[in-house]
Amino acid sequence: MEGINVELFIPGELKERPIICDMVREFKIDMKILEASFSTESGWAYLIINGETSETDRLFSYLKDIGIETKIR
Predict the structure, then answer these.
(1) Distance (Å, whole) CA 28 – CA 42
(2) What is the dihedral of CA 17, 23, 25, 27, to 10 degrees?
(3) pLDDT tens, position by position, 14-51
(4) Residue 28 near residue 51, CB atoms below 8 Å
(5) How many domains does the chain have?
């Protein structure tokens, strides 16, 4: 699966929020989860995301707005 390789850094205050589910429901993207780890303090996920540029741009803007740091790999 080609696409955007991205790592998400999720702060502890968002741990109860279904971030990954929200991403798939709210944006026209396909996603593959390669690795993920969550604890009571924080979490991270390494994903491959496919979608139209306009939709992935909208997704990354949303993630930034809610406090999730992203790193394109």
Answers:
(1) 26
(2) 150
(3) 988 999 999 999 999 999 999 999 888 899 999 999 99
(4) yes
(5) 1
Phi, psi dihedrals of residue 16, rounded to the nearest 5°:
-85, -10
Gap between the Cα atoms of 42 and 62, Å rounded? 19
| Cα-based distances in Å from 14 to 7, 30, 48, 70, 72 | 16, 22, 21, 15, 21
Task: Give me the domain span that covers residue 44.
Answer: 4-72
- Give bridge partners of residue 42 from the DSSP assignment: 11
- Residue 73 CA to residue 17 CA, distance in Å, equals 24
pTM of the entire structure? 0.89
CATH number at 22 reads 3.30.70.260
Give the span between the Cα atoms of 26 and 28, in whole angstroms. 7
